[in-house]
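job 3f2a | input accepted
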Amino acid sequence: MAFWFVMITAGYFFLYLVRYSIPTLSGTALALISMSAGTGLVSIVIDGSKRQQSIDRRNQLLGERAKVVTTVGASVATADQANELRRIDEELDQINQGLNASESKGFLIDILSNADGPTIYRLQAVVWTIVLGVIFVVQTYRELSMPEFSATLLGLMGISSGTYLGFKLPDPPASTKASA
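job 3f2a | predicted structure (180 res):
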């Protein structure tokens, strides 16, 4: 989202400075900003939903743990009860790690990876964004106007964004993968 905002804004100012007139935004510029904004907003909604699922699962496990502890009371836990407590505690640890995992592993790794590591759908989105970004810069410089991409190129960008969101949907949150 930030990439296209910066590219289009820089292109707009470049054209203004070179031509000494207010440039016209192209349909391509509007489409790229719309697609990237839509993708960013839907991504935030998906991430928020996954986070809420993790919080709900954590609360459920805390309730289960409290029941087991209450059942055991002052007596010695049976092997089954001890195993159940251990399983619940391990899952709670994973959920808490997932909820607190905001440490960056570096910009490139962060944008190319999900909880399981680098993914092809993220790579595809990044590569096509860069390719179209280079085309955008070159055409803006050569033609001294905002470029118009073909419907095919814009469709490719839309498919890339849609693929990213589509693969993002079924991913369980990293904190609940062990229980899935």
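job 3f2a | Confidence is low (pLDDT under 50) at residues 173-180.
job 3f2a | closed
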